[in-house]
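User: Hey, quick favor. My workstation is busy. Could you predict this chain's structure for me?
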Amino acid sequence: MENEKILLNIEDHIATITMNRPERHNALDGDAWTGLQRCISEIESNDDVRVVVIKGAGGKAFSSGLDISMQNEQIQSSFKESKDRSRQSVMKEIVDFQNVFNSIEWLPVPVIACMQGMAIGGGIEIALACDIRLASDDATFRFPMNHLGFIADQGGTTRLSRLVGTAKAKELFFTGWEIDAKEALGIGLINNVYKTEALSVKTETMAQRIAEAAPLAVQATKRTISMGWDMAIKDSLKLEVIENVSILASDDLTEGIMSFIEKRKPVFKGK
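Assistant: No problem, here it is.
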């Protein structure tokens, strides 16, 4: 990508997005938001991508979210002029930001957040939009929004509550207290914790493992879980049938069965 604040690398079916502002704890300014959105759009249009990894550069932070101290006229004026702008205008701007997070969640392929170091506010909201969150043992997590005068409006209150429960989510938002990786794992905020020096390898291993699976089946599974978890059981069961029937005639299914019979590693093509 041309945007040096957000880097995109696609190799061996794995797309890696790197938030590249280590000097600002990978906080996102206007250019970075635009770069992130462009990366997501490029991945959406690339049928070769089977899994996405999002990480921060520098090793000290995953992301500290929105760079509210940046010298960026667009964002600064947004805060300064919000009292004078129409309610609809402000709401549209917030929704535009939300859509960047939503586009991560709505990617058809699995998305892994590789979280080393601190994750603050909107940085955690990025991770919450991912399917899987892996963290280093030195990772920390904090939602300071209520102590800055606003709320987590990029999906944070919604996604965190569904992940860890409403009581714990309220505690984390109300207090703004920092929690470590061990506690984050215990409450279900993250999937796994690894030694700092092992995190990248563990993330790559998981991404490779997912990329080796049948793409159509993986994507159908993501849709079924994402759409079905808050459905009535009878409706989610019906969704399972619909999704599975849609891929039963695929070449990948034939390849999977034949590779099992022939005792070899399958080579899936997403067809």
